[in-house]
Amino acid sequence: MKAEAADEVSRRGTIRETWSKAIDFLLACIGFSVGLGNVWRFPYLCFKNGGGAFLIPYFLSVIFGGIPLFYLEVAIGQFMSQGGLQAWKIVPLFQGIGLSSCIIVFFLNCYYNVILAWAFYYFFASFTSELPWQGCNHTWNTPSCSLNFSQTSLETGRPLDTLTDPVTEYWENKVLAITDGIDDVGILKWDLTLCLLLAWVVVYLCICKGIKSSGKVMYVTATSPYLFMVILLVRNSMLDGAADGVEFYLKPNLTKLGETTVWVDAGTQIFFSSSIALGTLTALGSYNKFTHNSYRDSILFACVNSGTSFFAGFIVFTILGFMAKQQGKSIGQVAESGPGLAFIAYPSAVAQMPLAPLWSVFFFLMLILLGLDSQFVGVEGVVTTIVDQYPETFRKGWRKEILTAVCCAIMFLIGLSMVSEGGMYVFQVFDYYTGSRIIMLVAFFELVAISYVYGIRRFYENVVMMVGHSWMRHTLPYMLICWTVLAPIFCMAVFVLSTIDYSELTYSRPGHRMYVYPPWGVAIGWTMAGFAAIWIPVVGLYNFCRYGATWEVFKLLLVPYSLEKHQKRPADENERCLHHLLQERQLASAGSVTCQNGGYVADAESNVYQISSL
């Protein structure tokens, strides 16, 4: 995916890249959407929330929350041609949304690459004649390990629920070497540490040149995983018990719909897999040309994103049905409902195939490819925020590459806490508090800022300016309803429900063991979440005080900081903004006498300048 220099040079005198082909943005989004959020988190939440019942609130969330908010963020980035804090100069009072989103995606990057480290670990472990999780004769196995639960129970008289399979024991005892709690983090696992380092090196090499380098990689990472997914599904469908798994997946347990956690998880999942409220969509949209039809791309993205999640569910539940049949358990009991589900169900599926090590290599290579393009976008979102904030500093020479390396190094160091023997408990804290409910609150403020401060009619006309005469403009009234009414209600309802039905963080272990986090661990999680959200009011207050703390300044904080000529409607030509105020103050401090008259400034020599050109 090549990028070319933008045709226009911004007011700051720096050149910004744009996608060179119309399809590049869509491919970048698809490459991002087909990620671990689809094949790891979505099946995990289905499993947690009773299978098919979860699909109902999930697809409602897509229609009323996912698609409208996805396009809202893309359109803001495309309209402003900036990412991060600079994009939210569209409403300076809410500029903190950009900083909050950047902090959330920073936390997300820290723990998301740990999943890639696990995938690399399994990838390298697959280069053997017999997969290490196929038998019970290894040093990490316990006397409870069994390949056939029913037979072992008959021979030993042990209850079925006291037995564990070799795949689970390999994950718990070998890969994680998990301790008893977060207060016992143990030592760093050198093998996982090296895998994490490799993951970050690969990410850096792929994004160090920005969209010029990461775009080319996405042509492969966005398409190749589908081939592996189809092959796995075909093979899984031939396993005994696969039909039971599909039935569990598709048959809704309607009583689950009365549980608020099902709706909360559905809302947060579509936001998580689409990267809403993380600032990454604004960054991707900012590389579009102004008249690119990103509305069309957003609809296609939503279809591919949700379709991939739905498809991945079949792969997971067919193997869960097989595992339940083998172990003589119900599907609801067959595997731990947690982040490790993908590293238990999937390895078990691969182990059933002929030439299992070969297929395992290809499968975990697919997982790595799935995770990489998602990680590209996340890291690019952080880097873009910083570069757009200080373009004169970082768009020179190798400075952006150095900045990217520093960001990757910092996130790697934080990730080290998650590859220790107690790292899974730290991972859970990051995922539970920074990757779920807090993004609903940020999304709510995005909707308020655009719909009720910037003005929904004005934003609608801005979108029409970008979409042009496409037939899709006739569907925009639906977006207006979602942006002003449905999506804000949806976001706030899910956030409130998650607060009311809040339960302390726990971690499920095999054998029906449940670890409850200590109060100090929960406090750390809430501190991280609060640290991300607090910047919305803090930055707004800072801007108010910074520009003078007057009623005039407050009113100017409600309109864009400054717009280029192609961004303005006829009604915006003489609109006064903060940029004008600062120019007037500069002229005044230089000994000029300023007077406002229809958007013009006159200096002491009676030379007249149009303020919009300053």
Model description:
The protein is mainly α. The protein contains 25 helices and 6 strands. The strands form 3 sheets. It has a two-stranded antiparallel ribbon with strand order 1-2. Helix 3 (55-80) runs parallel beside helix 12 (260-274), helix 5 (96-125) packs antiparallel against helix 16 (356-389) and helix 10 runs parallel beside helix 14. The chain is elongated, with a radius of gyration of 26 Å.
List the helices and strands and how they pair.
Elements (H helix, E strand, L loop, with lengths): L2 E7 L5 E5 L2 H12 L2 H13 L6 H26 L3 H4 L8 H30 L23 H8 L9 H11 L13 H18 L3 H11 L2 H14 L4 H9 L9 H15 L5 H6 L8 H34 L14 H10 L4 H34 L1 H4 L4 H17 L7 H12 L3 H30 L8 H25 L5 E4 L3 E4 L2 H15 L1 H12 L4 H6 L21 H12 L10 E3 L5 E3 L4
Antiparallel strand pairs: 1-2, 3-4, 5-6
Helix pairs in contact: 1-9, 1-14, 1-16, 2-12, 2-14, 3-12, 3-14, 3-20, 3-21, 5-8, 5-16, 5-18, 5-19, 5-20, 5-22, 5-23, 8-16, 8-18, 9-16, 10-14, 10-16, 11-14, 12-21, 14-15, 16-18, 19-22, 20-21
Mean pLDDT: 84
Q: Main β-sheet: number of strands, strand sense, barrel status?
A: 2 strands, antiparallel
Distance between the termini: 36 Å
What is the helix tally? 25
Low-confidence spans: 1-13, 593-614
Shape: elongated
What brief labels describe this structure?
two-stranded antiparallel sheet; 4% strand; single chain; 25 helices; two-stranded antiparallel ribbon; 614 residues; mainly alpha
Question: In summary, what is this structure?
Answer:
The chain has 614 residues and is mostly helical. Helix content is 63%, strand content 4%. Strands 1-2 form a two-stranded antiparallel sheet. It has a two-stranded antiparallel ribbon with strand order 3-4. Strands 5-6 form a two-stranded antiparallel ribbon.
